[in-house]
Request: fold
Amino acid sequence: MLVLLVLAYMVISTTGTALPVFREEGISFVTSSDWNPSAGQFGALAFIYGTVLTSVIALVIAVPLSVGVALFLTEYSPKRLRGPIGYAVDLLAAVPSVIYGLWGVFVLLPLFLQPAADFLAKYLGFIPIFSGPPSGLSYFGAGVILAIMITPIISSLTREVFATVPTADRHAAYALGATRWEMVRQVVLPRGRAGVVGATMLGLGRALGETIAVALLVGSSTKISASVVQPGYTMAAVIANTFAEATGSHIRALVGIGVVLFVMTIIINMIARAIVWRFNRI
Amino acid sequence: MNERPDPRDAGEGLTVTDAAPTTRWAGGRVGPGLSLRECRPTRRRLWRNRRNTGLIVLAVGLTLIPVVLILYYIVSKGIVTMDWEFLTSSQPFSLRRSGGGFLNGLIGTAIMVGLATVVSVPLGILGAVYLVEYGKSNWLAKLIRFFSDVMTGVPSIFVGLFVYTALVVQFGFGALMGAASLAIIMMPIVVRSTEEMLKLVPPELKDASYALGAAKWQTVLKVILPSAAPGITTGAMLAVARAAGETAPLLLTALGSLQLTAKLWGSPIQALPLAIFDGARQPFEAGQARAWAGALELLIIVLVFTIVARVVASRSRISR
Reply:
């Protein structure tokens, strides 16, 4: 009951605070990328773009990895390895995001992100999305850290779905002479498809709202850039990084960004729940 | 790897032993004169099988690398600064200065998580009892279930914004506001995990209690809750672990402070994750060193809660 009240109050209170900004900027709040608090211009498009882009990068990396991990744990792994690897992956899920951020900035950045960004810009720079000057503190960097964070979430849900595939179906495929991969391809994956999609959406919801690690790695630039190896910003990160020095209508605008973010994640989550729920009914 | 019978060794040619001289079957060579052992999938299929097995193992490897790297760096970099002084003193007033520790953050986290737990766990359990024992599947219960599901997915920074607009604007930054935001984050987790546990209580137990003439509230209090207690504890501890590591909402509600304070409201208060975040944002080595030690401290706290929760769960599992 209280849950419901809190949620309703949450929406009312924040929207109420942000209302003047919404009213003043109108639709341009989400369609303009002019973000200039000192001049009173609030267009949040760059942050929306950054949020979507980093989440997409995260999914592109995380989904194949998580499906691979889930398949390994349910289909390939020797029994002895199953427990430890499962625990290790779950451990990733328990690590707080500020620790990911710290580790990302001081370890992953020099060790992997910066070289990878340099590499992408050097050899694939002719494609606009990889054009330089490259920086590890970028959409790409934030996407990678997000991918590491959501992989355990997606893989643990996917694993549960794969585990529900009846053993008899697997044996049937082997009896027809299928190789192990053919069995996975034709029996496990089709059965688990809805579950994988649902898990992906939940991972996406998490990636959209992730704040701290992204705030440290996204590079903090309010410009929109087509290249993933250049710095940008996300909605959650801009709130976390600039809230402390914001005043007046700037605060209201940040709250407004929060409301837009909230609406986006709610929609994604509802779709995810609907998919998972339908899957459970079958 | 090969605990299962290898599919290539059996079954392939079973149906076609007396077909025309060499029958091309979609996947390989079969026909009279070929023994079952010689019937093999085409090389292409075998190669594809092997390649994809390789890719899957690679995926596992790629996922495990961060686990190892994170643990290694947190421990090795954290242990350098982690000493008695770090555990028992507060931050120095300049991030440049070395020495000092995160005692102020530890105390702040303990106060806020403690308060949040005291509020959210009983409320969450009550909510779950309502869902399972009273509401069952009427529209209100369905609505609550749906929204608590949705609330688990609400970005934590939005919870922070909400508490900011609802409370901080009027009362200022402080421990109570931080605790409120953590409680909002914890509550849906507690509700959902408790609900799952209550559903597992065998109906025979309830029936037995009713047969003895117990009222509904007596049954709930004396039979259902005790038998689900280990599971509820697990859920609560996982929620605590989650709350202890939350940073984003505290930025907007507790704000952070370099001083050691135990005031509940009126003055900003530090939290462990906030202290780490500050250290990670600064270019000063001493501050970064403290951040690593703080990360080690926080990681240990979170992992202890998570692991103990797991142990409680696996020790006393209600018959599934």
About this structure: Residues 211 and 236 of chain A are 5 Å apart (CA to CA).
